[in-house]
Amino acid sequence: MRWDHGSVADPYANERAYEPDNNFHQLSLSGQYNWDRQSLTGRVLTSQATSNGSLTAFRNAPISQDDFHGEVSTLQADAKWVGRFGRDLTLRAGGEYRDRKDKSDEYAVVG
Prior knowledge:
The protein has strands at 2-4, 16-18, 21-35, 38-54, 67-84, 90-102. By secondary structure, the protein is mostly beta strands. The chain has a four-stranded antiparallel sheet, with no helix packed on it. The chain is rod-shaped. 0% of the residues are buried.
């Protein structure tokens, strides 16, 4: 699919922009384990988003390459522990980790 920009009076009227190829994938795993009076729950979530496309060379656009590759990966993990040690004592602990990596082209468009 293509999109035409501008009207006839616009200097960019004959320029075209093409739709990028976008993908998104996500995987989630979760679980729970119980023993005696304790329980442990956790989850791991990972995702990857990509985008590939041509850059339209508008006459005045300061681009440094003809195409763009974008890629962002994320990883999230969390865990929770609950222990009951009698009627009056319950302990809870939890942790969380998050990471995001952006491996996209940084200098495709200048300015």
